[in-house]
Amino acid sequence: MANANIKDIAEIAGVAISTVSRVLNNHPDVKDETRKRVLEIIEEHNYIPNNSARNLKKTNSNDIGVLVKGIYNPFFAKIIQSIEEEIDAHGYTMILHYNDDNANDVEAAIELILEKKLIGLICLGGNFSNLNLEQFSELEIPIILASTDMEEQQKLDFFSSVTIENEKAAYDAVAYLCNLGHRRIGIITTGEEDQCIGNLRMKGYKRALKQYGIPYDDRLFEIGEYTFESGFHAMNKLLDKGQDFSAVFITSDIMAIGASKAILSRGMRIPEDISVVGFDGIDFARFFHPSITTVNQPGEYMGKKSAEILFDMIKKKKGHQHIILRTELLEGESCKKL
């Protein structure tokens, strides 16, 4: 295999990219059998590990990576633009990489750092709840998690982060519907594999129901992904159940737009028949008809702050920082008072 990279070696060996990195760095936490197999494959394919973690400190690279989860969510557009402006202002170069929805975010981050010799990385979205901190400890570069979340505090001690209070924001959105008189409120959110944002927003939904004395009904729950099409199909599944509900909370605007299209395509009206609340505050939600009430995240500031923290760490001005930004509910035309 010509020009084999670290991902190729990992796939041939049947191990994670981080395991190949550990072998390259003589890390003790690798089984002898695994180490031998990886080294044999490296030799067989003439892989030269110039981009291994131990060489990151020797490079004069000015490249900063931005790893984006998924290619369909327009919420990230303004964040990326804001990050790029800050990186350019500091005289550095941005390398943008979109990670597939089904890909492992931890391995994608490690691969990007090693192959591009990055001196810093900002991760937009993604699931980092299942990582082993030792996988990143060898890399010794600042990593900022933006617009994602972790429930385990010890992991926040290793990364910097810029996020929102996802559970509270979801609670406020559902409480808004409760205060309008709604008692049968559906939800479309991501599945169990999303242990970060989706899980926290689900908790906020359930907490609001409990606060207002409304029992949780699993029949009013549907799973979607961060695409228009997914929201459309999830809403149709929810409607096909034949349950009587007057409102639905959807944990991203891109899904909320698809869901709203499903409602309207059935000859139903928004908000007369079903009220809709989304999440993110993207422009599409504002210009959809009817405009969608949504939780607005300060995307541009989130990007700017992420880059500022990164450069503080690169220049050794400050250590890890964890910034929590406020959200606000933007009222559109998609909700009705009962």
Automatic annotation (TrEMBL):
Residues 4-58 form the HTH lacI-type domain. Pfam families: LacI, Peripla_BP_3. Keywords: DNA-binding, Transcription, Transcription regulation. SUPFAM superfamilies: lambda repressor-like DNA-binding domains, Periplasmic binding protein-like I. InterPro entries: HTH_LacI (IPR000843), LacI/GalR-like_sensor (IPR046335), Lambda_DNA-bd_dom_sf (IPR010982), Peripla_BP_I (IPR028082). Gene3D superfamilies: 3.40.50.2300, lambda repressor-like DNA-binding domains. It comes from Anaerosolibacter carboniphilus. This is LacI family transcriptional regulator. It comes from the Bacteria. One of its GO terms (molecular function) is transcription cis-regulatory region binding. The keyword Transcription regulation applies. The keyword Transcription regulation applies.
